[in-house]
Specification:
- The protein is built from five helices and no strands.
- With 112 residues, the chain is mainly alpha-helical.
- The protein has one domain.
């Protein structure tokens, strides 16, 4: 199994732990899982960037998704519900990243 595949599998585990803590209202665990979950997602995105892979844009979108998701979780945990709408910013950036991916992918097919 490749090193990046191990990171992807670890990322899934961390994300499940973070979201399970959110579901169970375990604040200390949910907040504590933000850093390792985002860190692994960033490592995967950096790996794709260094490789020159257009998958970088999808991985960056995942980073944005986790950031938005984590912010939303913290808003619920710490009673900042009125600020939850700001999670739309990283979600929108994630959509932008995915759009760039599909545009670049389409350009690559047109050149082939």
């Amino acid at each position: 199994m490749s090193e990046i595949r191990r990171f992807e599998n670890l990322h899934i585990l961390l994300w499940l732990l973070k979201d399970s803590a959110w579901l169970m209202q375990w604040r200390w665990m949910g907040v504590g899982m933000i850093v390792p979950t985002v860190w692994v997602a960033l490592q995967i995105a950096i790996w794709a960037y260094r490789k020159g892979d257009i998958e970088f844009w999808v991985q960056l979108a995942v980073c944005m998704w986790i950031t938005a998701n984590s912010y939303w979780m913290c808003c619920e945990f710490f009673d900042f519900e009125s600020m939850r709408h700001l999670a739309a910013i990283p979600f929108a950036l994630g959509f932008l990243c995915v759009s760039i991916y599909y545009i670049k992918r389409g350009q690559g097919k047109a050149e082939a």
